[in-house]
Design goal:
Belongs to the isochorismate synthase family. This is isochorismate synthase. It is a single chain. The chain has helices at about 55-65, 140-160, 185-195, 235-250, 250-265, 310-315, 325-335, 385-405, and strands at about 5-10, 25-30, 35-50, 70, 80-85, 95-105, 110-115, 135-140, 165-175, 200, 205-210, 210-215, 220-230, 270-275, 280-285, 290-300, 325, 345-350, 355-360, 365-370, 370-380. The protein has one domain (about 5-120, about 135-405): Anthranilate synthase, CATH 3.60.120. A hairpin with a 3-residue loop joins strand 15 (about 280-285) and strand 16 (about 290-300). Helix 1 (about 55-65) runs antiparallel to helix 6 (about 310-315), helix 2 (about 140-160) crosses helix 8 (about 385-405) and helix 3 (about 185-195) packs across helix 8 (about 385-405). By secondary structure, the chain is α+β, with helices and mostly antiparallel strands.
Length: about 400
């Protein structure tokens, strides 16, 4: 029988900025307001695809855990060995699973480090390599904008005919750099400009999502639902008026209700109780405002084998990234969207050895391939959607990644 691999977790006395610890290459990140988890190096990695990809991911993670001898003097959610995951939107595309060699976490004033192997505790780098600014030349295509508005019109017609209630249509923008694109630079800019979002990086997918699909911690479940968007002007008084109009907008409230209902319905079978606020709040980001609702629940004690993988399989894809009804919306996306989403709009984040974790929806993000990048934006289309306004909304949603790549 092969010997077990040591995995050690211990407290860190210092509280260094997490992003400053990251080296170039093979890095992963999940940070919000300076707290979270980062990692580097690859102990093990694999891909899964197909309709059973969440179950296949669980089996692979469980097999890896069986090979570990874990010593954890910190304990708690997010400590010990961590699986970083980036699942595809569609089961046809590949999802990526990574177990970092070294993990550093920070939460509520507590910092810790985890490393895999028998080597001594890694020495943290307090002097990170200098960042190389990214300078992207974007492929601006007015014909693509026109084609996307046409697809929105098609979707509206199908919705108004009674075929479905809502569909989310995505679009992409591609760009190229003169050199290899620097992930750390993107994360640094996003974390400063959008501190209330979750800044993530997994295998070249990097972004700042405002939407928490699932937090599972000690049998408590949380999901933050966003749907309904309006751009900010930068004028505080004007933006307050716009926020009020967003909160009253029948079109946006309808779109939001579909998304909240899909999440609440997915969580209900697992929970003894769920809390769904009667009305959303307005979440203010640097460039846009969203209608937002935090859905929470307590897992039923009798369900002993429910973990993050189990709930993700039911949650994804929610109406916030697919539509309502789910199957009809997915079919329409396949028919008219004309792009491969890859891991855009899929679950992204981390899962620990207990099966707890934090995973967002991979929004406001881009997929890097050496010196090129695809960035994405999506809009929820309902019966009252206007193609011109939806195009403007999609352009606003592209701003975080475009500005982080300058």
């Amino acid at each position: 029988m092969p010997s077990l691999i040591p995995v050690t977790t211990t407290h860190l006395g210092e509280h260094l900025p997490l992003l400053d610890l990251l080296p170039d290459g093979n890095l992963v990140s999940w940070i919000r307001a300076g707290e979270g988890i980062v990692g580097w190096g690859v102990h093990a990695t694999t891909t899964v695809s197909g309709p059973h990809r969440f179950e296949d991911a669980r089996k692979w993670w469980s097999a890896q855990l069986e090979s570990f001898a874990i010593t954890n003097s910190v304990h708690g959610n997010g400590t010990g060995p961590i699986l970083f995951t980036s699942f595809s939107f569609s089961p046809d595309d590949a999802s990526v699973l990574i177990i970092p060699q070294v993990i550093v976490g920070k939460k509520a004033g507590k910092s810790w480090i985890t490393w895999i192997g028998s080597a001594p505790q890694p020495v943290l780098n307090e002097n990170p390599p200098a960042l190389t600014p990214n300078s992207i030349v974007w492929n601006i295509d007015n014909a693509a904008d026109t084609a996307w508005k046409s697809r929105v019109s098609t979707a509206v017609n199908r919705i108004q005919s009674g075929e479905l209630e809502k569909v989310v249509l995505a679009r992409e923008l591609t760009g190229r750099s003169a050199h290899k694109i620097e992930v750390r630079s993107i994360l640094g800019k996003l974390s400063v400009e959008y501190p209330s979002t979750w800044c993530f990086a997994v295998d070249g997918l990097v972004g700042a999502t405002p939407e928490l699909l699932l937090r599972l911690s000690r049998k408590m479940v949380t999901s933050r639902v966003l749907a309904g968007t309006i751009s900010k002007t930068g004028n505080d008084e004007r933006d307050l008026a716009l926020a009020a109009s967003l909160a009253r907008s029948s079109k946006d409230l309808e779109e939001h209700e579909y998304a909240v209902r899909s999440v609440a319905d997915a969580l209900e079978p697992f929970c003894t109780s769920t809390n769904v606020p009667e009305s959303p709040f307005v979440l203010h980001l640097a460039n846009v405002m969203h209608l937002a609702t935090d859905v929470t629940g307590a897992l039923a004690e009798k369900l002993t084998h429910v973990d993050a993988f189990t709930i993700l399989e039911q949650l994804h894809p929610s109406a916030a990234v697919c539509g309502t009804p789910r199957e009809k919306a997915a079919d329409l996306i396949s028919e008219i969207e004309s792009l491969s989403r890859g891991r855009y709009a899929g679950p992204v984040g981390w899962i620990d050895a207990a099966g707890d974790g934090e995973l967002g929806i991979a929004l406001r993000c881009g997929q890097i391939n050496e010196d090129s990048i695809r960035i994405f934006a999506g809009c929820g289309i309902v019966a009252g959607s206007d193609p011109i306004k939806e195009l403007a909304e999609s352009q606003a949603k592209l701003v975080p990644m475009r500005s982080a790549l300058t």
